[in-house]
Amino acid sequence: MLLVPxxxxxxxxxxxxxxxxxxxxxxxxxxxxxxxxxxxxxxxLDGLGRSSEVIFINDGSRDGTExxxxxxxxxxxxxxxxxxxxxxxxxxxxxxxDHARGEVIVPMxxxxxxxxxxxxxxxxxxxxxxxxxxxxxxDRQDRFVSRILPSLLANKLISWISGVPLNDYGCTLKAYRRxxxxxxxxxGEMHRFVPIYARWQGAKLTEMPxxxxxxxxxxxxxxxxxxxxxxxxxxxxxFLTQYETKPIYIFxxxxxxxxxxxxxxxxxxxxxxxxEDVSFIQTPLPLLVTLGAITGVMCILMGLLAELLxxxxxxxQGKSHYTIKSTINFEDEKTQ
Length: 336
Hints:
Shape: elongated
Number of helices: 10
Number of domains: 2
Largest sheet: 8 strands, mixed
Distance between the termini: 28 Å
CATH superfamily of the largest domain: Spore Coat Polysaccharide Biosynthesis Protein SpsA, Chain A
CATH architecture of the largest domain: Alpha-Beta Complex
């Protein structure tokens, strides 16, 4: 992915300076919202008493967003990344995470629907010992049929599949400890699933109500087709997180299931033949036995092949399939 240099580049000394809080804001055709958002956000950051930065990721906007961001970046706390073309919110979020310097990372939308005034309360929750604080737009200001209803259904489905119950996966406003965002990449529409990944990695997660305002300028970039993409991405996240190092389990279970189906179909065919005097060729059961047995064997072979690929992936790059939170008395040894 190619990035255009920011209009007001930081010096090398500025870039190396650590900060406590990084606010990430992906934007696409939000020219009218940039200055009002900065006017609302910067006073909140001033009142925190913590060092902070704001990273706008301009996702290939075609209106005046780039110029508006260049003007806003007169404030040195505002940093700007501009993509050559539109690649989506998840890629923009990943770019922001890659370039953030903060110990705490807070993503938020750039359409003025998230309220910066909720950020201090989210930081207070982190100070209580949580690793991830997820916003919940309990009083959501959107159209019910096209936005709220699909979101409610998607949230129920995601919570059921992932085992991580949240009321609002779609709310961009969240707060993360930086270490919770290490060691994975985001693709597709997966930015909304970061709390799931963090929880599966042992993060302490909580959810808190946040304010939500009607959109004042511009138009929404999302439609109902996004629900299908989200569900498919959830399947990918579930597979990669739960079975990345043991793919034989999922392929093997599928293989055993198909072979079990073939076995039961065979027994039923034999029963019909010798008890009910029904010829094999009068039922589709022999075909079901054949297809089930072949599919089961193929699934198991695919699982074995996936196991080989997993070992090549980890061993060739010297990667570990575990992460270490901390060590004691290992100062002279390099941990992976």
